[in-house]
Amino acid sequence: MSIKSPPGGANVRVLIFYGSAAAGDESPVVNAGISAIERIGLSGPAKEQFAVEATDNANVFTNEKKLGRFNAVVFLTGGGDVLTPAQEAGLEAYMEAGGGFVGVHDAARAEPYS
Predict the structure, then answer these.
(1) Other CB atoms closer than 10 Å to residue 101's CB: what's the count?
(2) What's the pTM value of the predicted model, to 2 decimals?
(3) Residue 63 neighbours by CB distance under 10 Å
């Protein structure tokens, strides 16, 4: 897969992935995190704002067309092994092609063997 993210500037889009934290005790943290990132995206001058889409569906990382619409991916919590090998390869290809990545909260423990 060779996934190119769109250039920066106008119409910047950020994907928030919250993986294993979709349900249970992490839900309040996830909801607050998504809300905070959305507020950040809408703050500041219009030319520096960005749109946000959130998902717990890891299949986005094997969908080249969908993933390629985003300038950056934010892992919000999601500790543990939350991606299949194919999904992990898709995320790696996206980043190697210039897509941005931000890890928040428990994201440092996501994909411990990668």
Answers:
(1) 13
(2) 0.83
(3) 15
Rounded distance between C-alpha atoms, residue 5 and residue 91, angstroms: 11
| CATH code of the domain made up of 12-109 | 3.40.50
CA distance 11 to 5: 12
At residue 66, what is the residue type? K
Q: What is each CA distance from 98 to 2, 36, 91, 109, in whole angstroms?
A: 10, 25, 11, 23
Taking the C-alpha atoms of residue 67 and residue 91, their distance in angstroms, rounded to an integer, is: 9
Domain edges within the chain = 12-109
Average of per-residue pLDDT values in the chain: 82
Two tokens at 93? 């290809």
Q: How far is CA 86 from the centre of its chain?
A: 16
Which amino acid would we find at residue 114? S
Using one digit for the tens of pLDDT, what is the confidence trace for 29-52? 888 999 999 999 998 888 888 999
In whole angstroms, what is the distance from residue 45 CA to residue 26 CA?
32
